[in-house]
Design brief:
By secondary structure, this protein is an alpha+beta fold. It has ten helices and 19 strands.
Length: about 400
């Protein structure tokens, strides 16, 4: 026999269910609210320590405070607390400089410098195609005066600042070169492309391509080098990523895409355990023997480049164990014009383990020549290059 529920009872049951639902929801909402309040309270207690310091400094510091410098210092200090050398806060000027660097284009005269023991500006690199190279500056030149002001008198940092400047303006440098009298160079600053790819056809129909960094304009330079070498008869390729500290992942993908078979090449793993494709290659593939030169300064994207070619093209790695940076950073623009670079994931090829903190071991270990910098493409003076040629032959 069917039993019928009265309308009043049905309404009572519905009301009871709604009440239970409300109570349960309220319980979890209240617990979530309490947790958030507790978190805010804990944060307030932590930042109260900063307020104590700030109050003491403002009351007792001997001179006027630079508020902008204080804020920048606090932001940089927060990021340094991560104990991650690759995560950092950048001021607007620093962020703009990073964007310029990653673009592969820069404004200036085109030199990399350091301070020597006397305090003068020591030129350690003259960039190819730069105004400095056109003017005749050389590696190991000393800049002893800038705009007719002695570097020791105005200080190294101020002198370097005066070397920089806007496009079309002129820097007047007094250069001291070993064995020669000081000479004045007047160099007009320009916007120019940073050359990150160098190439040469070696004997035995072996093409050599060095990549010093992965910038926005690196793929174009790389593909032009590949086309020139293969058109001139290269039957094997040596890729040199020694002293390459890495760069942009999308530039790396553009470079390895035409070299590797179709499919997922590398993945990134994030904090919550999710993975995403980091490198993907289409159906176009280069069918040619390859070797890759690496050393202890090959890092990040340079290591992923080497690992990808070894895992998917059986390329032999020649040289010394690489640096071991298998983590990925993302840079975000901030409202104040600055930027934040944060490590967000580890990455690896889909056929091998992550090499972070370990590095890539070469298939053919070869020590570099003692006290020798890799400045010329010459197997007679570069034992690692000579071994790579031997491996391909």
């Amino acid at each position: 026999m069917n039993k019928q529920i009265s309308l009043g009872l049905a309404i009572s049951i519905a009301a009871l269910a709604a009440a239970v639902t409300f109570i349960v929801t309220s319980f979890f909402s209240l617990r979530s609210f309490n947790e958030k309040v507790q978190a805010v309270k804990e944060k307030a207690e932590k930042y109260e320590r900063l307020e104590v310091i700030d109050s003491y400094v403002r009351s007792n510091y001997y001179t006027e405070l630079d508020e902008e410098s204080l804020v920048n210092g606090m932001l940089k200090g927060y990021m340094s607390g991560l104990n991650d050398p690759y995560s950092n806060y950048m001021t607007p000027e620093e962020y703009q400089s990073l964007q310029e660097k990653e673009s592969g284009r820069t404004v200036g005269i085109g030199v990399t410098v350091t301070m020597n023991e006397e305090g003068y500006i020591h030129i350690i690199e003259v960039q190819k195609g730069s105004p400095a190279e056109k003017a005749g500056l050389l590696k190991d030149d000393l800049v002893v005066a800038v705009n007719e002001q002695d570097v020791l008198e105005i200080g190294f940092d101020e002198a370097v600042t005066q070397v920089k400047g806007e496009e079309g303006t002129r820097a007047v440098l007094t250069i001291r070169r070993e064995g020669k009298a000081d000479r004045i160079y007047r160099i007009t600053r320009e916007t120019f492309d940073l050359i990150t790819v160098d190439s040469k056809l070696l004997s035995g129909e072996i093409g050599y391509i060095s990549i010093s960094a992965f910038r926005e304009n690196t793929p174009q330079q790389f593909h032009e080098a590949m086309e020139t070498l293969t058109a001139n008869g290269a039957k094997a390729l040596i890729f040199d990523v020694r002293n390459n500290g890495g760069g942009l992942l999308n530039s790396l993908e553009e470079i390895v895409d035409p070299l590797l078979p179709e499919g997922e090449i590398a993945t990134a793993t994030y904090q919550d355990g999710t993975t995403e494709t980091a490198l993907y290659s289409d159906a176009q593939e280069t069918d040619i023997p390859m070797a890759v030169l690496i050393n202890g300064n090959s890092a990040s994207a340079a290591e992923l480049f080497a690992a990808s070619l070894r895992d998917f093209k059986d390329a032999q790695l020649v040289g010394a164990t690489s640096f071991g940076k298998g983590i990925m950073q993302v840079t975000t623009a901030l409202e104040d014009g600055g930027g934040l670079t944060l490590t967000v994931a580890t990455y690896q090829t889909t056929r091998s383990d992550c090499y972070h903190g370990v590095g890539l071991e070469p298939d053919v270990p070869v020590e570099a020549a003692p006290e020798t910098e890799i400045t010329a493409i010459d197997p007679d003076t570069d034992p690692q290059l000579a071994k790579a040629i031997e491996v391909l032959r």
